[in-house]
Amino acid sequence: MSAHYNPEIVELDAQQHWEDARSFEVGEDADKDKFYCLTMFPYPSGKLHMGHVRVFTINDVIARYHRLQGKHVLQPMGWDAFGMPAENAAIQRGIAPAKWTYSNIEDMRGQLKRLGYGYDWTREITTCKPEYYRWEQWLFTRMFEKGLVYRKNSIVNWDPVDQTVLANEQVIDGRGWRSDALVERREIPQWFMKITDYADELLDGLDDLPCWPDSVKAMQRNWIGRSEGVELSFDVVGEEESLTVYTTRPDTLMGVTYMAVAAEHPLAAKAAKTNADVAAFVRECQQTDAQEATLETMEKKGMPLGISAIHPLSGEEVPLWVANFILMSYGTGAVMAVPGHDARDWEFAKQHGLPIKQVIAPADGSTIDIDDAAYLEKGVLVNSGDYDGLDFDAAFNAIADFFEATGRGSRKVNYRLRDWGVSRQRYWGTPIPIIYCDDCGAVAVPEDQLPVILPEDVEITGVGSPLRDMPEFYAVPCPKCGKDARRETDTFDTFVESSWYFARYACPDNDAVMLDDRAAYWAPVDQYTGGIEHAILHLLYARFFQRVMRDEGLTDVSEPFTNLLTQGMVLKDGAKMSKAKGNTVDPQGLIEKYGADTVRLFIMFAAPPEQSLEWSDDGVQGSYRFLKRFWRAVIEHVARGPAGDVDASALNDAQKDLRRKTHQTIAKIGDDIGRRRSFNTAIAAAMELLNAIIRFDDDSDAGRSVKRESLEAVVVMLSPMVPHICHALWRELGHESALIDQRWPEVDKNALQQDLVEMVVQVNGKLRARISVAVDAAQNAIEAQALADENVQRFIDKKEVRKVIVVPGRLVNIVV
RNA sequence: GCCGGGGUGGCGGAACUGGUAGACGCGCCGGACUCAAAAUCCGGUUUUCGAAAGGAAGUGGGGGUUCGAUUCCCCCUCCCGGCACCA
Fold first, then answer.
1. How many Å does it take to go from CA A612 to C1' B3?
2. How far is residue A351 CA from its own chain's centroid?
3. Measured in Å, how far apart are chain A's first and last C-alpha atoms?
């Protein structure tokens, strides 16, 4: 083998070996300990970017590490192939979305292979193919039969010029990205999945996920937003129907001084008919996009409707307002306002001169001024008639009981989580398997007529969906009565495909059922790796779908992902890489220049996986330099002739030191990768060991055998990160069998033993000396040695020693 | 606005359970090799005072708990992710 490191030769050779040996194709073997190791599959945008390289490398390292631990590892790959970019490419370049997508997949598959990832390509999934999406159409029809899906009106971003529904991303500062027209909120009928039926289970299930990051669990908990409160109704003067509101603070009920409804609320619409100002205000509210962040950050505005509600306890009239920050989609679209004890209500009241009433006082008897700020804590009721003096719990129950007894309200558990709207008015997605019949209503497409195939040969104009202009697609007979009917032309949200693909990798070729026995073998995913940006939506939808599949009898598993790793972004010059900023780094060029191993090594070394990673071309150089040193170290060692096994009983001190370092490093790297997932420190430890090996200049038989043991350990331990060079060096070290089939080295505990240990001596917490003590030294002996130190004495300076703290093996702190 | 995360040398980062701040790498400085350069190798590198020994300061800012805080608590600030139609 060449004395010179040539990454291209080394890498293509290793990849050829893995392909010939089918190293990564796995079947189901009940006797083996399975490990299902998965990344969030990519959208086939055309070219791999550094974010992809990062997440796939992290996962490949974990997969290869577990394989070295003797696990039966499955690492599949596929394509999240439906979505907007394909339509945009079609508009801009006139290529049909399907053609563009399939060509991108070809390119990206080639790039993935060049990076040496250990995928079982026989299980590849492409979501835009009918053999994949037919099963989510089928599951949807099952959900339809069970009442788990329904149709209702909901708000979309409407571009009045392009006559098109816009994605939030296509709304820039409230205007359509292509037309520049002010976006309007518009209500259209859409399909929803009842994820709220599973709200409690999705919430409680988080407790069964000890290996998920706490931050992700916290975000999901807050997103589900379970709260316990009371739903109660206020009569409205001159209206038959009362106004229902939900509150988690019924104890503040006597502090209600006004009420507010959303612009889309029926009462606002009714007032608008007779009040031009209200009509104008409601119109103004609708001249904005539908994003929550927009609603929450815009200036809080409101207008009195000229209608009053009757306070259910006091009988007083309170004014009814319409406000731009009330969400029709959350709760009942109406709120009772308690400006004394709610920050937003307080601000709104101040702004519009509405009264502020204190009805809660601090429990400790202190006084507050409700005119300065709302008092948000729970306390004791005041100015609340019969309820005065009660604390939160007592007041909650007394008021809830009162309303339940009078039939005007009830205790209610409420969720922030809303049902999942899955309809998209787009072409490039899975057709929703529904047919509308004038007589039979919405009818699910029968199983024997699935899949509903999306026509791929279409022209995309950017105005509406082409499916709406294709009678050959939408004109169908009603499956129930046979009358002329119309097929649904909306498609699914692409989150539907990504909510179950992980299960389908087990049996991608089964055309009879959605999931089979092989899915039972592989589920759940043992390790799931993906971007933190998916912490809520994708991961929550996938957890929901897993339960829907379970309740359909397709699996016994409730939680799809056992361990979750959320990796950070790749930055350049402190900003996310983007074409617009011109700060992208193309992985392809770097692979050609340095090879895949250098890129993989740098990306794993530059930052811990959860943190954002700052790209550095100089850092890549450094990784390349390290691999060259690594190569040379092994080649030079081998060139000096054979080395036998280590005889641990016949080593000198320097040989013992290198052996100790070797076995300490084996323990550290195993812990860093296996438990801590701290790949950057694992690589640092390997670098340190290699530095020690190179410095170790001992050509005796014993010296060479110790060195060989160390080098072999480094080769095996670095192989998850840089598999190609390690494959070659393992051969170089004289092994017949391939590295991919080896096991992780074992720690020799005897090699770890040492006689002396360095301890730090502090005086009043400040470092003053280092002492070398016997490992088994008694505490008072250590104290005596520390006190005897010259510099320590200087700082004690004849002051009285009040206390000595000894932390065995670490430090002595002398307090004077 | 709300929820979650982050801020440590010139730079990326390390310090895992409250116990040596700056491992490892980059960059830079000096040296070796070379006609020269690249590559490679050796040494140095938080700031500051000092010839040195050895001090002082220091982990976004302010306060607190502790013998001891990058680590725990409170307040503030800046940056990043998510907010339901980007994926």
1. 20
2. 40
3. 65
**Tokens read off for A156:** 């979309």
CA distance A670 to A678: 10
Query: How far is A522 from A542, CA to CA, in rounded Å?
Result: 16
Burial category of A756 from C-beta neighbours within 10 Å (exposed 0-12, middle 13-18, buried 19 and up): exposed
CA angle A239, A243, A247 (to 5 degrees): 165
C-alpha to C-alpha distance for A782 and A382, rounded to whole angstroms = 65
Contact A639, A595 (CB under 8 A): no
Write the pLDDT tens digit of every residue in A333-366. Answer: 899 999 999 988 998 998 899 999 999 998 888 8
Q: What angle do CA A56, A62, A66 make, to 5 degrees?
A: 145
Q: With 70 as the cut, is the pLDDT of residue A1 above it? A: no
Cβ atoms of residues A690 and A732 within 8 Å: no
Strands A125-126 and A423-424, by their bridges, are: unpaired
Work out the mean pLDDT of chain A and round it to a whole number: 93
Nearby residues of A629 by Cβ (< 8 Å), 6 or more positions away: A690, A694
How far is CA A385 from its chain centroid?
49
Digit-coded pLDDT (tens) for A372-420: 888 888 889 999 999 999 999 999 999 999 999 999 999 999 999 999 9
Burial classification of residue A427, based on how many CB atoms lie within 10 Å of its CB (0-12 exposed, 13-18 middle, 19 or more buried): buried
The share of chain A scoring above pLDDT 70, in percent, equals 99
CB A814 within 8 A of CB A804: yes
Give the bases of strand B that a protein CB approaches within 7 Å: 1-6, 11-16, 19-21, 23-27, 39-42, 54-56, 67-69, 80-87
Determine contact, residues A262/A187, Cβ cutoff 8 Å. no
Q: Would you place residue A580 in the very low, low, confident or very high pLDDT band (cuts 50, 70, 90)?
A: low
Q: Lowest-pLDDT range, A163-177, A437-451, A469-483, A487-501?
A: A163-177
**Residues A450 and A433: beta-carbon distance below 8 Å:** yes
**What does residue A434 show for φ and ψ, rounded to 5 degrees?**
-135, 145
How far apart are the C-alpha atoms of A544 and A746, rounded to whole Å? 42
pLDDT of residue A205: 97
Distance between the alpha carbon (CA) of A791 and the C1' atom of B51, Å:
21
pLDDT at residue A530 tops 60: yes
Q: What CA–CA distance (Å, rounded) separates A645 from A549?
A: 55
**Distance of C1' in B24 from CA in A606, Å:** 10
pLDDT computed for residue A798 by the predictor: 76
Nucleotide nearest to A684 (CA to C1'): B24
User: Cis omega before residue A339 (within 30°)?
Assistant: no
Q: Which helix (H) or strand (E) holds A704?
A: helix A701-718
DSSP string across A74-102: E---EE---SHHHHHHHHHH---HHHHHH
Tokens 């691999």 sit on residue: A627
H-state helical runs in A198-258: 199-205, 214-224
Model confidence pLDDT, tens digit, residues A243-268: 999 999 999 999 999 999 988 888 99
Question: Are the CB atoms for A45 and A85 separated by under 8 Å?
Answer: yes
Q: What distance in Å separates the CA atoms of residue A233 and residue A254, rounded to the nearest whole number? A: 14
Predicted confidence (pLDDT) at residue A292 exceeds the cutoff of 90: no
Distance A813 CA to B63 C1' (A): 26
Query: What is d(CA A316, CA A309) in angstroms, rounded to the nearest whole number?
Result: 8
**A575 pLDDT higher than 80:** no
Nucleotide nearest A218, from its CA to each C1':
B4
Q: What angle do CA A493, A494, A500 make, to 5 degrees?
A: 110
pTM equals: 0.95
> What is the token pair recorded at A740?
């991919």
Task: Please state, as a whole number, how many other Cβ atoms lie within 10 Å of the Cβ of residue A746.
Answer: 11
pLDDT value at residue A460: 86
pLDDT of residue A750: 93
